[in-house]
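Is this the right way to post structure tokens for a design question? Let me know if I should format differently. Anyway, here goes:
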């Protein structure tokens, strides 16, 4: 997994690149897209209860099937006001699937390597031949999981994520800002 930094920046980028109105306030929209882009990692939570946060990590929640499911649920909720169900579905599913894509480009050091990204069409794990993101150091025991995230390698991972995704998010924000300016002039 990249850290939530890369995922959050990806969510922010997708928010900038679309024109639907989810909420009226900007911070609510940003929060929604940050949550959507990180939601797949909620699979750490059931693992905590069985003593190993990694027990269910990068399985079904990290897949096209999960993205479609979240897209359908989200479109059902947000599409009621303007009937743009398909558009909401595409944007929400994309924001969710951005997580899976970034994890695909992660340097995974723990078997099974990669993500089950094409489930339900395939139960295989896929990982990029050339990873972009540094592997995150994390413990397999619930008791030491949070402390283990303070490892020096994770600071390197953080820096790499900022360097890769920061400019992408910035360009998306800048482009949207200029487009809005052009429309209002
Ligand atoms: Zn993940």
């Amino acid at each position: 997994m990249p850290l939530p930094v890369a995922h959050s920046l990806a969510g922010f980028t997708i928010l900038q690149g679309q024109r639907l109105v989810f909420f009226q306030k900007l911070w609510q929209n940003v929060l929604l897209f940050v949550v959507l882009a990180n939601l797949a990692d909620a699979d750490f939570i059931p693992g905590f209860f069985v003593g190993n946060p990694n027990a269910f990590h990068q399985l079904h929640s990290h897949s096209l099937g999960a993205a479609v499911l979240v897209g359908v649920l989200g479109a059902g909720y947000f599409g009621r006001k303007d009937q743009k169900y398909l558009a909401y579905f595409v944007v929400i599913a994309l924001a969710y699937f951005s997580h899976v894509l970034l994890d695909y480009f992660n340097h995974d050091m723990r078997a099974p390597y990669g993500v089950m990204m094409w489930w339900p069409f395939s139960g295989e794990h896929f990982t990029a031949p050339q990873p972009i993101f540094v592997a995150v150091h994390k413990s397999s025991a619930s008791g030491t999981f949070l402390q283990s995230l303070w490892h020096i390698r994770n600071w390197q991972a953080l820096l790499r994520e900022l360097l890769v995704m920061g400019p992408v998010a910035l360009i998306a924000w800048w482009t949207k800002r200029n487009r809005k300016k052009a429309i209002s002039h």
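Format looks fine. Someone answered above. Worth noting: The first helix runs from residue 4 to 16. The chain has seven helices and no strands.
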